[in-house]
Structure formats: C-alpha cells, structure tokens
Records
---
Amino acid sequence: MAAKKIALFIDADNISAKFGKQIIDTLESRGEIFIRRIYGNWEKISLHGWNECILNFSLRAVQQPDFAAGKNATDMSLTIDAMDVLYGGHAEIFALVSNDSDFTPLVIRLREGGMNVIGMGNDNASISFRNACNEFIDLDKNQTSAPPPVPKVEPLPPPPAKVSKKNSREAQSQRDKAERNKRLQQMHSILRETAKTNSGTDGFVYLSRAISAFAKKNYGFEPKNVGYTSWQKFVSAFPKLYAFKGRGATFSYRCLTAEQKSSGDNLQKIHDILHETATAHGDEKGFVNLGQAGSAISQKNINIKDFGYAKLGKFISAFPSLYEVKNNSYRCR
C-alpha cells in the first residue's frame, strides 16, 4: 500500500525548534511528508534556532513580516497556503504544529473537506485546537529527555592585568567600532548577494528575500543592534547605495551603480563618525555637542551640504530612528 501523503505546516512563532526532529520522526512513521513548510518572521533572533532544522529536514521557510507592532500575520499566511493544498487534492493528512487557538477554524474546515488532521503542540496548547483535531500529539510528553552533560572543569584563568579606566574605555570603544563595522558589512553583503541572484529585469528585489537569506546565516544580531529599528530603515538610510520603493511586504530595493557608491561611502562615514564621537565624548546620558561631531566630520573632508543638508543638526534630525536631538546636542538610540 502506498504511503499516506502528509502536508506539514509549522507555526514557528509558537513552537520551539528543539521539537523539530521529534515532529519529523513522528510524522514519517505515519506516511510521506510531501509538503514541509514552516512560517515565521525570520528577522527575529528568537526564531534562528530553527535554521538547523530547516536545513536538516528540508523545510521550506516562508517569510512572513509583522505588518504592525504587536501583531503577526503568520496565522493568516499559513491558513491560506493550507487551503490551497486542500483544493489541490493531493494531501491525505494535514499536520498542524502550533499551540494557537486561531487555527481551530482551519482544522474544522479541513475536516469538513474530508481530511484527517493531526495537531502537534505543547502542554499549553489551546483546548479548542486540541479537540478540533482528529488526533493531538503532545510534544512535551512524547519527548525523551537526555541526561544532562557532565560539566567540563576548566582551569581558572590568570587574573587580568590592571588597566586604567581611560584605556579600558578606549579599548572597549575600538572593539565596539570593529564589531559594528563587521555587522554593517555583513548586512550590505547580504543585500548585494540577494539583488545579484534574485532581482528582476528592473534590478529590484523584494527586501523580504534578503531578510530570509540573512536569517539563514544565523549571525546572531538584528538591525536594531547597529542602530536601525528595521531592515527597511537600514536600506532607507543609504540612498546613495540603494534605490527603493513600496512599503511593508512590497518594499523592494536595487543596488545603485559603482559611480554612486563613493558618495554612499561618505554617507556611511558620517554615521560612523557620529557613533564614534558619541561613544568617546558623550556625557552620562550619552549626549554630545554637535560641534564636536562637526569638527570630526570636517577633518575627513566630508561636507554635509553635499547630501542636501544645510547643517549637521538637519542631517541628524532626518534619522529619528538613529539619533535623538536635544538643544545643540545629540545621542545615538
């Protein structure tokens, strides 16, 4: 007898990646998992634990940005795809992995369509979701726990050499600068690689593709760790490097020509100088006088007016997600 065709849909926002192997092993004992999809906003660091499962078990990661703060559109995206598979008529069993009661109507509709629905989740899974499924598998109860590893005893390190507070701050500032520059380069590299391999005839590519590619790299940081509240804010901060259009899920970009990159480099240098000046000379609240940053920028032979701003204060005010301005001072957010 031919193996049952199973369509697997995982809500990554509600299930830990530690159950990935258990989910696959359990379902493969029931039939052939011919559809393997996992949904989430892969820009979130909290979901990066799924990266290894995505690679090892050939899961198709579906990027679903959060269109509004505090909301997530994963449920709707997963539901639409599940209904498409139902109408395709090839699946015999649907496996929905979540704890969310919002999937209860989907389960009921699938069963009305003659499908056998297996729910999988944790102890805190919604009662309505559990009861709607033909069968519900509690991942916590079915997981075999391995004994804790024996801690490795390492020799105590030698006591650190005494350094002055000033030297310590300068050394930390240099480390912070190097780490930030490394992260910025990684983000720009992802944007360039994605545009090179996925752009259309007009050179534009959806930003969500770059976000997915970045998530797979598992770098362990987000745009906010380098001063940007989102990927869209990051791309928008480099108008000399990227052209962009649309918003939300339709936001797309393209890399500009080589002749324009020198101006873009100077724009990045301005941001770097602003961060360095705030780190080295900021007061107890992080504020630093605009004049100190202006002098540092002038020493690099960079003119703010070349970017369309009459004064440095106007330039800083154009990036409210990066800087806070107060009187004649600013600080990095």
---
Amino acid sequence: MKSLKKLLALSAAAAVLMSMAGCGSKTESGTGDTGSASVSTVSEGKLIWATNAEFEPYEYREGDQVVGIDADISAYIAEQLGLEAQCEDMAFDSIIAAVQSGKADMGIAGMTIEEDRLENVDFSTPYTDAGQVIIVKEDSPIKTPADLAGKTIAVQSGTTGDTYATDNVDGATVDRYSKGAEAVMAVLQNKADAVIIDNRPANAYVEKNPGLIILDEPLTVEQYAIAVKKGNTALLNEINRILAEMEENGKMAEIMAKYLGGNEDLSEAAE
C-alpha cells in the first residue's frame, strides 16, 4: 500500500546485532550451480535473509526451523545463485536496519512496498498481493472499519497494520506487540477490541482460535516484495530475474499452494 506516514524508526546497527537470532530453514540449499559472479554478499558463499518468524504462513517456526512462503522463496533464490540460505530472525522493525547496515543481504518478511521504506532500501518486483483486515470476537459490536473509532486496537509493532491504526483510526488507542500472536491474544483476553493484521496470517490465527472472526471489509490492498541494500543493483537484478523465472516455471505457484492450499485468490481476501 502507499506509505501513510513515517513508519520506520531505524534501529542502530548495534541494536540490530543484539536482536538477531540465527535460524535454519528446512528448505535451505547451497547446491545451486548457476551462481552469478557479479553478486557479492555479506558472507561469502551465503545469502543472509532477515525476517521475523511470527507471520504464518509467510514465516514461522516449526521446532528450531523457520519455514513458510518466504523461507522457501529465499532458499530457491539462494540455490539459483549457488549460495547457502541463512536466516536471521529478528524483530520486524529491525529488518530494514539490518539490510541497510549490511548485516543481511535481503529482508523478506511479508513486507509491503512503502514510500518511507524506499528512502532506506530498494525493493524487488512484488511477489504477491495482500491486504490488512480486522480480527474481532464473534460477539463484538465492531462490524465495519468505521466502528474502530475510539477503540483499543492491537497491532504488531512496525507493521502496516500499526501504521494504519495510528494514522487512520480516530481516537484509537494503539497497543503494540512484538508478535502478531500476542496482538491476537490481547483480543482473546479482552485487553483490546480488535487486531489489524495482514489477511493470510489473520486466517491462520482465526482458524486456531475459536470465537474470533475476520470482518468482511478489508482495510487495504498492498504488495509484498524483497528489500535489499540501497544501490545493490547487482543483487536486486538477480532477485528480480529469479522471481520472474519462478512465475514462469510454476515454482511460485507451487510454494503458494504448499502453504495456502492452492488458494491464491486475494479478491476474497480479506480472508
């Protein structure tokens, strides 16, 4: 979605280092034989991707592994470049700083292309569409986005949902949490009236938590893309090339179907 107002307060590089926790992906691969000599990475032989593994189905943990749509995309890109994918799991609002400061080669975390973010990083071509939706309890008096005025809204800090609630809901109290699951729990525990979050993670949370529903009317329509350090055109061009190939050879559809059951129709989305 278009940037609404200033979203990111970039963390200092030291803070990024402290927040980074290594993780593995079941789909990581370093066996590719099509590496590009023109691409240099933070660590030789590796493609380090920064994420926040609290965003099912895009990235989440199964045991000590980070899996999901973005994990599989990152592994495939690394393989095509002849590199080993290495995940760094951190707070969402530290990802841009990690990429900008050279601690990670790319950021992929269900991240929306926004004008404010474009001031600090470059983005790939979009790889999927998404949108912000509202989660409430089944018996909630909140029936439409207009009903959010004056309510307490739980969000994951630094996300588009955070921006929307802060900038567009009159009189709202915005409670920020480090994880989407914590924001949802706030509604279940009657600490908040609603959650604003991306549609696909919203589906996963509602499916796992009886008594919650997603309102029919979506708040936004937006696109997800991969962030790289500003000016790193060699890597950006390679990522764009591989994303285009994934669309053409069916790999992107395969990954989406793996985690979404084949349903890629985001016109219903507001899933």
---
Amino acid sequence: MERSKRKRLERAGWRVGSASTFLGLTLIEEHLVDMKLTLGARLRKVREQGHLTQTELAKRMGSSQSRVAKMEAGDPAVSLDLLVQGLLAAGATRRDIAAALASRKKVASA
C-alpha cells in the first residue's frame, strides 16, 4: 500500500496491517500458509505444462478432481503432504519443489 494512502487511512481512524496480523497468525503459521499457497500455484503450473486436466491428475493420484481443484485453490484443508504428492504425480521433481519454495519472497515478520 502506498505510504500516502496508509497515512490517510490511519488519520481517518483505520488500523492498517497485514492479513497475518488481522488473523492473529504466528510466524510459523504464516510460513505454512505461504508454503501451501506456493505449492498450490506451482501444482497448477506443472499440471498445465504437462497438458494434464485436473481429472487426469486426480486419477494419477488416486484422488478426485474436486480435491485437485482444492489443492490448486489453496484450500486450508489440504495438507502439505497432499500438495507434494500432487506435484510428484504431475511430473515435478524434488528439486522443482525445493526451488518453488526457495524462490518465494521471505514472509515479513509479524
């Protein structure tokens, strides 16, 4: 947010902060959310690059199309394990997964 806009909102009585602050997330929780969102986005990218539909990926995983959709959308019920399983089933390597996590900007401290 631009500094001028932030100051204007604060002068009007608004409190400005991050989603993490609003939700009361710990730094660890913030990192986990960021990792899940990163892996979900990477899953979609790898799936599309492999010319796979969600249904085709689901069959490879022994899961359902709706579960793959939830994985890509960042549904909080999806585990990191499932995201990694999906990436591997879509053709990603361990190195690809590590690179996806390493390339993310560091999450700001709360």
---
Amino acid sequence: MTTRIPTHPGSVLKEELESRKISQKQFAELIEMSYNQLNEILNEKRPVTVDFALMIEASLGINPELLINMQNRYNMAVAHKQPSLIERLNAIHKKCAAVF
C-alpha cells in the first residue's frame, strides 16, 4: 500500500496567488523576498518557515499555523519514506526493545 504524501503548503499558496491573479514576481516584490526563493517555496523545493508563514498572514490573511502544520505533516511523510532513516529507526527500535 502506498501512502500519499500530504500537500506541500507551497502548492496551496501557488494556487492562491493564481486565483487572486497575483504574479509570483509581483508578490515577491510586495513581501520583499527574492523571486527565486518564493518560486522555490511555491514549487515545493523549499519549506515554508515560520517567518514566511507570518508574511503570508500579513499579506494574504492566511492562518500561519495552518501553513506550518501542513509543512510539518509534509516533512514527516517525506522523512518516513527515506530508506536510510527507516533502516536507522528499525535498528534503534530493535536495540531499545531489547533493553526496555
């Protein structure tokens, strides 16, 4: 069974800007952020940080906690798919199960 990765908050913000007919370049200028940084967030290549979420609240009125919670769920799902981490977690589980 394949578990779906939760939606990255950047994807939601990208749709929001498109629905409001605000270009990425224009929005980047409004919030005083480089276009490249904004574009990377909107294209799921960078995480939404607390500072960025607060800028979104100030500019678009979107709850910053919603964005941070989305980012956290996304990060956890991606981490749980990393084979090296899964292997390490299984090893830790086995060691601790033997001790406790």
